[in-house]
Recover the amino acids of this structure.
């Protein structure tokens, strides 16, 4: 199949980081350079950021998911009892004002239920496009401003909210926090304090579902990508962003 990729957008924002895709795929899918967590060792999904940038793909499964939060939110596993989970998030980590608010948040948000045996996270590969659920752009603040505009470019009032910035773990922001996979939507991610240490200080994550990714691919030369606002920003930054 023809590779689908937002080449123009990536070129105009001088994207120099790999676009990272999340795939819901059979465990034997033939990704190259697969890495896995050590079973039983707690490790954040984003600890593999440098591996992704080096072209490696992380394989996760219900039996080997690295972090308890990732096991819960990406595989619907109960890695601890509800009372203990609420206590950990509210009291130990201080993420909500009260147990009641944390319970409400857990009731409102639901884990992803995989369609296949594994979830792979690694460089975007067009060959596996049908298995892809989301793609993440790791960008600096200037590049992020362009992606925010790109996400709103085709949006009309009344459409699904083009960009969300929800509270949640970093892995949630890559998949289960989307409102839909049928209409274009993006999530401003990497806002989870627990995973920020694994990213460069000036890098943010901008994750899009497949319809939004396809919107990015159809933005043309007639758009903001060639207009004065972006040109002035690049000039202010010495020629590039």
């Amino acid at each position: 199949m023809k590779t689908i990729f937002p080449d123009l957008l990536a070129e105009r924002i001088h994207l120099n980081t790999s676009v990272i895709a999340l795939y819901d795929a059979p465990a034997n899918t033939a990704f190259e350079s697969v890495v896995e967590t050590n079973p039983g060792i707690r490790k954040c999904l984003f600890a593999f950021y440098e591996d992704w940038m080096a072209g490696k793909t992380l394989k996760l499964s219900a039996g080997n998911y690295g972090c308890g939060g990732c096991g819960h939110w990406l595989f619907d596993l109960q890695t601890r009892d509800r009372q203990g989970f609420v206590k950990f998030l509210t009291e130990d980590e201080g993420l909500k004002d009260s147990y009641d608010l944390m319970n409400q948040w857990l009731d409102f948000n639901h884990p992803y239920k995989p369609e296949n045996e594994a979830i792979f996270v690694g460089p975007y590969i067009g060959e596996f496009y049908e298995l892809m659920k989301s793609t993440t752009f790791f960008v600096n603040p200037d590049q992020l401003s362009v992606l925010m505009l790109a996400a709103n470019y085709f949006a009309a009032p009344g459409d699904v909210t083009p960009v969300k910035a929800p509270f949640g773990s970093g892995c949630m922001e890559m998949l289960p926090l989307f409102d839909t996979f049928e209409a274009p939507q993006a999530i401003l991610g990497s806002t989870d304090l627990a995973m920020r240490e694994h990213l460069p200080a000036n890098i943010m994550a901008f994750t899009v579902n497949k319809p939004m990714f396809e919107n990015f691919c159809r933005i043309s030369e007639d758009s903001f990508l060639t207009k004065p606002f972006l040109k002035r920003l690049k000039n202010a930054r010495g020629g590039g962003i």
About this structure: The beta strands are 20-25, 34-35, 57-61, 118-123, 132-139, 163-164, 186-189, 204-209.
